[in-house]
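Protein entry
_____________
===
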Amino acid sequence: MFSKLSRWFLGALLLQFAVGLQAAHGQEYVGKVDHIYDGQTVRIFYRGGQIRVRLAALETRDSQKAKQALAELVAGKTVRVREVRWEDGFLVGFLMVDNKDVGAELVRAGQAHFTAAYMPYADMQPLREDAPAGELGTWAQR
């Protein structure tokens, strides 16, 4: 019914709306990424200290490829993190770099998929469908 471009645009628009709603509920942190742990976890330098950040609502399938994809997006860059919650010493949040949602970029590239634990990311379904259809990232190996 919808073309890939239409689905992508609609998904991106809904995602931006959802992320905007999420920001109203949590604190925002701005810091420089100084370490990539895996495909969904980074460390940022924030106000003289370090914070470990896990991307909200994402899981990665192949940690080495996802880690590389995440590093290409954020390594050494200043990012914004919109807090969802703190869990086991991690800040769980939505990560933005250069006005792009990092989680959405990883899903779009086929290096991660969203989990239903956070409703705002449910709007990523069109992006998730495009990755396997286009045989992108880890979906190319199937």
